Amino acid sequence: MNTQATSKWNIDIQHRRATLLDRLLLAAVALGLVAMVLLYVALLKTMNASGRVTAMVPFVVSWLVILIVWSFNRSWSKALAGARVDNNQLQAQARKLAETNQRLRRQTSQLQATADIAHAGSSILDPETLMTHLVNRIQEGFSQAGVYYVGLFLLNEAQRVAVLRAATGEAGQLLLEMGYKVALDETCTISRCITNRQARVAQDAGEGTLRFDALPMPHTRSEIALPLRSRGRLLGALSMTSTHEEAFGEADIAILQTMADQVAVAIDNAVLYSQTKATLEQLQAVQQRYVTQAWREFLATKPVVTTDYAQPGTKPGDERFLHEARRAAMVHKRTVATSSPPPGDDENGPAPQAALVVPLKLRGQVIGTVALHETDQQRPWTAEEIALAETVAEQVALTAENLRLMDETQRRVARQRTVGKITASVRETLDMETVLRTAVQEVRQALGLPEVRIRLATEGEHGLQDSDGL
User: Fold this and answer.
1) Are 277 and 391 contacting, i.e. CB atoms less than 8 angstroms apart?
2) N or C: which end of the chain has fewer CB within 10 A?
3) Same domain for 78 and 135?
4) pTM given for the model
5) Are residues 432 and 387 both part of a single domain?
């Protein structure tokens, strides 16, 4: 029994006692008055006036005492009655205050969940991870409303079926493993919500309860489905079920719909980010293939450029050591700083040496290396030296790419100029034989070939039938 109930019980007991005492005292006053009247009548026959007064004084005093006590008790009873009324009002106000506090705690929890959802939408970029986090956070935030299951449904590409993508609890995991889907036939709360693009609430277990095929949901007493809308598009629906009857009131729907809109925007942003990331990765892969192919073709037409610089008097180092360092830098696509093992007792063994090899990278592809070689001693490469070498390598790679692009542009211009010259020469005459002869001569001169042939042919019934060629 709590303090309020104990206080009410004490006031009730005191009020009942005061009422009983009031009635007893009232009866005593009435009986005393009757007794005094009867006594006075009896004394009229036996005593004179002074004797009657003397005999009546004790009875009158006693009666007055009882009357005073009754009057005081009556005032006390009225005070207790007022206290009882005040206590009832205080208890009613306390209940209202408790209900208000409960409602405020519930709204605070809901708003906190909404804020967490907004934060998650900006920090979690993987759609699957985001959806799993959102449904779990929503269930935690609305646990005071008896929410024990939250399911997130997204429409398929055909916009005809809502597929369960994330859910909470053991039931949710079973539904995910089953690949649960909801047809948009308005036979359940979720389908009606998506079809009408409005929130739908089922407040008792007999109406609109979840129909999860062979998986029962016996604890459901209330259910709400909220549309997921983002940028004017309908993504799906958010389903919440509660063990409480009438768990979702009109005041809750506005907050829940705001939360659902934030969920939809967060999911839409995560999906767009994933799509953009995938497209960017594809573009990067295409660029890398283009760079690789372009440099392969460039090196096929140009001799491999190798530039070495050595200080005068420097002894040549071990080329195998430097070759291994270069190969490691190209394979791993990162800077390699290495030193040879310390020399042993063998004086004829290889001299100590060190190498710093930085790959020349363009869009993630290695097109060469820059190697620094210490040929006669071991050397620890400092962070400043490595940073300087990498900066120089980056500038060398960009410059080499610019020169390749310039060479490619020049070759294209020359090719276009040659094509234009040949086209102009061919168009100078309307005679077929002269056109073909001119084309052969121009192509042979442009490409430096000893012989060029043009053969005209048509596809006949049994193969190609050739006309005279030039």
Assistant:
1) no
2) N
3) no
4) 0.56
5) no
